[in-house]
Amino acid sequence: MQPKMIAETTRTMTQVLSPMVRGYRQQTQLCHASVVGSGVKETHHGCLPAAPVAPTQELLNTLLHGYRPTFRRHPLGWEADALLELGARQQMCYYDGKLFGGYLTLLLDRILADCCQPAVTAYLHTSFVHSVPPDVPIRLRAWPEKVDRRKIYLVGSIQIPGSTAGEMVEAIRAHALFVRPRH
Predict the structure, then answer these.
(1) Superkingdom, according to UniProt (predicted)?
(2) How far apart are alpha carbons 26 and 46 in whole angstroms?
(3) pTM for the whole thing?
(4) Topology (CATH level 3) of domain 57-179
(5) Nearest-CA neighbor of 53 among 89, 23, 93, 14?
(6) pLDDT tens digits, one per residue of 80-104
(7) What backbone torsions phi and psi does residue 101 show, to the nearest 5 degrees?
(8) In this model, does residue 20 exceed pLDDT 60?
(9) Which DSSP state fits 47?
């Protein structure tokens, strides 16, 4: 790569990486990265570009692609169930063959919220029992456990295929508290 082209790439990367996550007390660390197409190919060790402050609708649509829950009446509200097969752009792995826990928690938060709209997440506790491979169907489930005025206590889970045909085992369990807004 020519020196002029390197300078242009560095300037472009600085423009892309500058409007990063706000609120951190430490200064944003800029780093040199190789750019391929519209994405970052590689960065120096220990230097990861941060995500933009507000995710675009396109990003959210990509993360939730294929999410189509079904709902059933439950004595305390609604119960939701969804089967999701992740596309290549959704298969975010921190370690090879294991989906990123933050992404799985996002999926749980979404299905839990869908059971009690309008409400906001006040508390979400997740227990990771098994790692989730990126290439298996994922079953998301959520249901209310208790309702106390504006507070809705919910339980959710992510299930993955077990060792026998048709068997689904619980990989992640969630307990959540959602609160309905005051009217």
Answers:
(1) Eukaryota
(2) 15
(3) 0.67
(4) Thiol Ester Dehydrase; Chain A (3.10.129)
(5) 23
(6) 999 998 876 677 776 778 888 998 9
(7) -60, -35
(8) no
(9) -
Residues 43-54 pLDDT 10s: 444 444 555 445
Residues 6+ apart with CB under 8 A from 108: 124, 126, 140, 142, 156, 158, 172, 174, 176
d(CA 175, CA 124): 6
**113-136, pLDDT tens digit by residue?**
999 999 999 999 999 999 999 889
CA 110 to chain CA centroid, nearest Å:
9
The pair phi, psi for residue 67, each rounded to 5°, is: -80, 110
CA 141 to CA 123: how far, in whole Å?
17
CA distances from 13 to 1, 5, 8, 178 (A): 15, 12, 9, 39
Domain range annotation of the chain: 3-43, 57-179
For residue 105, what are the β-bridge partners? Answer: none
Q: Which single residue is written with the structure tokens 């799985």?
A: 104
Q: Are strands 98-99 and 120-128 parallel, antiparallel or unpaired?
A: unpaired
